[in-house]
Amino acid sequence: MDRAVPRAKKTGTQPAVPDRSVFSWTNIGISIGGGLAGATVFAVLSKGMTAGFFLAHLAPLPIMIIALGLGVGHGATAAIVGTALLSIWPSPLFGMAYGLLVALPAWLSCYAVAGAPWGRRDLLTRHLSSWAVLALCVALSAGVVLFLGITALSHGTIEEPLSYVQGLFYFKLDAMLKEHQLGEDVTVADLTRFTQLYLPATFAGYGLLLHALNLWIAGRLTQISGMLKLPWPDIAADFALPRLVGVVFAVAAGLTALAGFPGVAALATAVPLGLALAFQGLAVTHFWLRGSKSSILVLSILYFFLGVLGLPMILFALLGLLDALLDFRNRKSAADAEQTSPQ
């Protein structure tokens, strides 16, 4: 695709530019190759190796590069090919996990970045960076809930779909318990209940972080290659989630008190939405620090503590929620314009 996210102006509005997927045999071959590459990277998870686990973090990247470089039509081809291959081998369940948690979110985020082209016009013309993240939230939350729901119905309980992943942690947790690293009052049963409640939400939240990072990398790579024609977005000004996101987040957070599958599904919805709001809080912080002589130092310290502690993300989620309601950046821009205007 020969377009990028438009640079946001004060209103965030840009003229519609339809997706330009050129269906030549060469591009189709590249799309199939991209799907094969993504499936191969994800398939290393079946080997159970640590190196394979980290390599699988790049599984969305081939689909995103194809979608951003050749067009969302070719990105869809790569996503379908990868899902079909993994459904044949190693198993249909493995293919479903790839399709719901990797291929579909990767493609939807690029579709949003492209402006959601439909026919000869774009359905989205403003705040495309935030729409891309929101598409990831919806796809990942729905994918996790649907995956758990289907497998729970087929096995009878929600615990069964999580038993494989729980088994991966068993030996490590057992060793930590024997060495009293988790405290004397913590039992295996406590850890099992904790895993059943928080593991799906962790998948959704961690998946959002990985997909967002892969989307940024894919955008930069296609930009460097010259396949991304329009300017890189001003994310600090452009990233603005709809106010409805804050409402859905609050409702989902409240429903996490429910027991069983409803509570697990609500938490898997609330966590990625909360992380998306934290992204907005970070965008606001970048916008506020713009032009400051100490901005590099402040941001370096900020991201250091985020990487080490992680907890400050809660504060940024609150800032993002407040910005969705009060629109801090437009208020700041208006105040700056008044100060610089001639008297």
Shape, principal axes of CA atoms:
globular
Distance between the termini: 47 Å
Task: Give the total of beta strands.
Answer: 2
Structural class: mainly alpha
Q: Element order, helices and strands?
A: HHHHHEEHHHHHHHHH
Mean pLDDT: 83
Radius of gyration: 21 Å
Q: List the domain count as a whole number.
A: 1
What does this structure look like?
The chain has 343 residues and is mainly alpha-helical. It has one domain (25-335). The protein is built from 14 helices and two strands, in the order αααααββααααααααα. Strands 1-2 form a two-stranded antiparallel sheet. Strand 1 and strand 2 form a beta hairpin. It is globular and about 70 Å long.
Can you lay out the helices and strands and say which pair or pack?
Blueprint: H1 25-43, H2 50-55, H3 60-70, H4 72-88, H5 92-113, E1 117-118, E2 121-122, H6 128-155, H7 159-178, H8 188-225, H9 235-238, H10 243-255, H11 261-289, H12 295-308, H13 312-326, H14 328-340
Antiparallel strand pairs: 1-2
Helix pairs in contact: 1-3, 1-4, 3-4, 3-5, 3-8, 4-5, 5-6, 5-8, 6-7, 6-8, 6-11, 7-8, 8-11, 10-11, 11-13
